[in-house]
Amino acid sequence: AARRGEAGLEVRLYTSAQEGAAQRLHLALEVMAPLQATVVAEATSLLPGQRAPMRIDVHNQDELGRTIEAIRWVWPEGIEASGVTGRLAPLPAGQSATVTAQLSVAAAAEAGDLVARGEAAGAGMAGSPLPGIILRVVPGLQVSLEASAQPAEVGGLTEFGYMVRNPGPEALDIEAVTVD
């Protein structure tokens, strides 16, 4: 729930020339709850070295009626977003917005769940955390080539077979196999 309140801060300045505080200053600070928003992201599991589309929906559900003026995402190491279309901000309370982007996953990215962190800013408020976006990087297919007979005879034919292993947690469709 959104809450407002005040917090007091008293600053005292002491000098060696005077006993007790030489100056006192009382500051009243307004304390506000962070901006409230929901985030829904649609992305398939990502493979190392892959580019994949992603859709992010943000709904401003701030109970104090504040507008989200800006959103900043921090992507995990090994993930980059490019080709962003759409705007998430400004986003008035009660409204939703959608963006799409292309995610690039570094070829050396390790398998596992990574979290993209977001922050929302509004009038007089910055750094309100948004729900994280979980990105699942799954191991890629492992391919090996095996010969049916050793050694390969001069002028003879030797069959080769592709062995494909899926070490990941879900089935992956093999759309094509090419040999260069």
Account of the protein in words:
This protein is mainly beta and 180 residues long. The chain is 0% helix and 54% strand. It contains no helices and 11 strands. The strands form 4 sheets. Strands 3-4-7-6 form a 4-stranded antiparallel beta sheet, with no helix packed on it. The protein has a 3-stranded antiparallel beta sheet with strand order 5-8-9, with no helix packed on it. A hairpin with a 2-residue loop joins strand 8 and strand 9 (125-137). The radius of gyration is 28 Å and the shape is elongated. The mean pLDDT is 86.
Structural class: mainly beta
Q: Supply the number of helical segments.
A: 0
> Low-confidence parts, pLDDT < 50 over ≥5 residues?
none
The total beta strand count reads: 11
Topology as H/E string?
EEEEEEEEEEE
Q: What does the average pLDDT come to?
A: 86
Instruction: Characterize the overall form.
Output: elongated
Strands side by side in the biggest sheet: 3-4-7-6
Helix fraction? under 10%
- As a whole number of angstroms, the C-alpha radius of gyration is 28 Å
- The end-to-end distance, rounded to whole angstroms, is 60 Å
| Largest sheet: number of strands, sense, barrel closure | 4 strands, antiparallel
User: Per DSSP, what share of the residues sits in E-state strands of 2 or more residues?
Assistant: over 45%
